[in-house]
Design goal:
Keywords: Cell membrane, Membrane, Transmembrane, Transmembrane helix
Distance between the termini: 21 Å
Subcellular location: Cell membrane
Organism: Kribbella soli
Radius of gyration: 33 Å
GO molecular function, one term: transmembrane transporter activity
Number of helices: 23
Protein name: ABC transporter permease
Low-confidence stretches: 112-120
Length: 826
Amino acid sequence: MFRLAVTTLRYRTAAFLAIFVAVLLGGALLSAAGGLLETGLRLNAPPQRLSAAPIVVTGDPAYHPPNGSGSAAFPERHRVDPAVLTKLATTPGVAKAIPDRSFPAIVTSTNAGTAQSAGSGLLAGHAWTSAALTPYALIAGQAPRAGQVVLDQRLTGTAKPGDHVTVTVSGTPRTYTLAGIAVAQHQVDVPSVFFADADIPAGADAIGVFPADGTPVRELAKRLDLPTGVKAYTGDERGVAEFSGIATGLPLIIMSGVFGGMVAVVMALVVSATIGLSVRQRRRELALLRASGATPRQVGKMVIAETMVVGVIGLVLGLLCGRIAGTWIFGMLADGGIVPTQLRLDQGPLPFAGAAVLTYAVLRLTVGFAAGRAARIRPIQALAEAAVPNVALSRVRILTGLVFAGATAAIALSTPFMGPANAAAIGGPAGLTGSIAVAILAPLVIQRALIPRITRLVEKRGTSGTLAVINLRVRAVQFGAILVPITIATAIAIGNIYSQTTQQRAAVDAFTENLSGDVVITSTAGGIPASLTDSARSMPGVTAVSELVRSKGWIEEPYDKSHTSDAWPLLGLSGPVYTGKVKQGSLDDLTGDTVALPPGTAKKLKVGVGSEIGLRLGDNALVKVKVVALAEGPSGYESLLLPAQLLAAHTTSGLPSQLLLKTDNKLHRDLSKWPGTSIGGRELLGEGLDTGLGVDAWIGYLLAAIAVAYTAIASINTISVAVLDRRREFGLQRLTGSTRRDVSRMLRLEGLLIAALGLVAGLVTAAFTVFPIAMATRGWPIPSGPVWILVAWIAVVLLLVLPTTAITGRIAMRPKPMDALSSPVG
């Protein structure tokens, strides 16, 4: 039977090519998902600017809730107490300890011309003593003194030591003398601006520790006596101290799990549909084998053997492509800001082994079901169904399909009652369960639910239309194999994309609608300096000014269990621009160490106006603040309100990020005095807003990409298999008077109908995800998002189905009618 199975491969090229490509893509994507998982677990980021220090000590960049549930990255840099430096310097085995402090610094110009900028908002400023952590070496000039700077050679332009340079430090431009020019001894992505120790802000972000001669690095790192919340890193882990965002691998771990699971499910559905179609088209061949003495077990083994040969070859090639797929997906995540660009993709043997086992298991299970059906069929029944395929579904299959359909409805009905934070997690699976329901019940969907409603419309197209409707009804099982990938892809792609755009819009609207003001000033030079705020207050036509500071934090005293690893949004204000209803107290008292809480949170924590609570801010500082007001916010999008000055002091830049102005006329103001600042309308309020949807959005977009890829592969292959299998039918039609043009018109109508049915079924399925999420997040069932995405998707499906049908139809009609009737394929 194995030899027979191998022999049949060359006669079933189209069908086995479909399986081969689906398994290849599945193996590659599962390997990529495994690489994301390993990367999230290891979190290796080779250091650049701190690479000379064998040990780097820094504050733990991850917040660990008091209840021990999960962890989350601190949104700000967690600085080290200066006392730690003194303690480390006197530790036995430590040769020296060098502190590092990073802050925003941008070279604006030199007296020799414009210099190269280090980049907007980058933490390029450092003390000259920290140059040894790279190390940097002077190639001209000398170390800086007060009022002087040393520049990375890439920033100097044509300037030379002794020239004057303008450097914007923390939003304020200042003039310095260029003391020297330095070059890093290895690659450093962000060129540095070095200042004299007296000219830098106080504090330390990290401490580079150099062991004494003969002291093992890892041994010294383990025995350093560090306070709680401070850690020592060695090797590639040192990048955690240098690059922000490398605190916890939870986002990558979640993404890899969802991504890998969806790949496995979609691959199983596509491979199952393709194998099922191939087996159904071979009923006559399998029936003849049974009639000639083959046992059910032998027939089943043959189907399994031929499919597994193709599948294993596809799996091997897929694993070989896994590294390419992993690098490509990881690169997109880095470009999208989900992971730092400096994080290294780790894709060792385990991801490939896991992908191989999972892909093989999916393939073996799906082919096992198809082989079992082929083995059980009786010879006479197979010959009859080969002529007229049986559309009847078993009770078990119908019941299973109804269960998934019921689950889809239940999910959709419960989602609107969830909060915005849980809407996607609850409502998202509706697209998948709905797709599975359609995949299981596809023949009935085609024959009983949809065909009767379009019969009259299509039959007006003449004989070709009548034949197309008859073929759809009689060949509902075969067309179901084409319908399934289109439906799944439409449901996943449209459902995920519009769910994300809807949630994103809802989050931005919830933030901006609570703030009054018509002019926004932003800065890419590290923040809004106090001089700009004072100047804005004196601008003609300005009636109110407020600094805006955004960060995240946690309520620890008393402990708020509703926000553990997910932090509270913190909003810092310094003026009367908040429009939410104040239930108690007054926002005029929001000065000093104070806070305004949502009324529901205050009730749950049993605190009120006048109570004192403890907030864990984004830099790990625990501050005691007094509750001065209970202010409402949009349901599900509430924020804790703090004085801008208090919150800004605990951010990485130390400055507000925006300035919001109320004006009574159109404002025109020259901001050239503050480089990097820009002025605009309210639409700038939403720029850079962390809606907390970054990982979720990328999961949705990756799933949409999977859907597109699998739709292209599955649709092209299943259409090719189904059309090429009808050579005899086309030959008979041509012998009875139909022309090639008539047959092509019939095929075109069939393709158009099945594409339309797939799109309709997919859009209906996606609606069970999108509309409930819109209800939960926006309060009404109208999703947000560009219409062109839907139009583009419809065009993609039509461009996949119609040209493939036309091309394979011409290939199928290439033989003469009499030769087609004697074709071995059928």
